[in-house]
Amino acid sequence: MPSKSSSKMTNPKSLSQKKTTEKKKIESNSKKSSSELFQIFLIVTLYFGSSTCFHIIHNEWSVAQAFYYSVQSGLSIGFGVLAETDDVSRFYTVIHVILGAIMISVSFSLIFARVLERIEAQKINAAKDSTQKKQSLIAIFIDACFSTEVVIAMLWISLGIGIGVVLEGWSVIHSLYFALTGISTAGLEGPSNVDVSKLFSIPL
Questions:
Q1: What tens digit of pLDDT does each residue of 66-94 get?
Q2: DSSP codes of every residue in 102-150
Q3: Quick check: 194 pLDDT over 60?
Q4: CA end-to-end span of the chain, whole Å?
Q5: Would you give the DSSP letter of residue 11?
Q6: What pTM was computed for the model?
Q7: What domains does the chain contain, in order, with CATH numbers?
Q8: With left for phi above 0 and alpha for psi between -120 and 50, is residue 170 left, alpha or beta?
Q9: Rg of the chain over CA atoms, in angstroms?
C-alpha cells in the first residue's frame, strides 16, 4: 500500500506537460502582441501620413508644418501655432480630429487593459506560490505601474522639458508646463513658429 507521502509527490510527466503548455501560451501571447503592435504602427502611419500629404498639397505647407499640424490636431492638442484658411481644409480636419479621438480612446483602453492584466497575473502568481509573501492590492498596483508604459511616459515628459529649455529658452518649470499640457492634450502653450521646434514638439 503506497504511503501518503508518495501519493502527494508531483508527477514529473504532468509537471513537464504543464511547463510546455505555459511556454506555448507565452509564445502565443508574444506573437499576438507583435501582430497588434504592427497593425497599430500601420494604422498610425497611414493616419498621420495621409493628413501630412493633404496639408502639403492643399495648404502648401512645409513637411515639418504639415506633419506637426497633423499630429497636434489629430491628438486634440491644438497649440494654435498654425491655422487653416479655407473650408475644405477645415472640413478635412474635422474628420481627422474625430478619427483621432477614437484612436486616443482605443489606445488608452489598451494601456489600462495591459495594466489590469499585469495586476491580475501578479495576484494569480502570488496565490499559486504559497512561499511568496502576500501583497496588498495597492502594492501590486504600484509594482504593475513600474512598467514599460511608465518608463516611456517619463522619457516623454523629459523630452518635452528638454525641448523647452534648449530650443525655446524657457525655464524648467515653464518647460514642464509645456510638456504636461501637451501630453494631456490641453495645449495651453505651443512652441515658437520654427520648423525645428515644431518637429521636436511632435512627440508631445
A1: 998 898 888 888 777 788 889 999 999 99
A2: HHHHHHHHHHHHHHHHHHHHHHHHHHH-TTSPP--HHHHHHHHHSSHHH
A3: no
A4: 71
A5: P
A6: 0.61
A7: 20-114 (1.10.287.70)
A8: beta
A9: 24
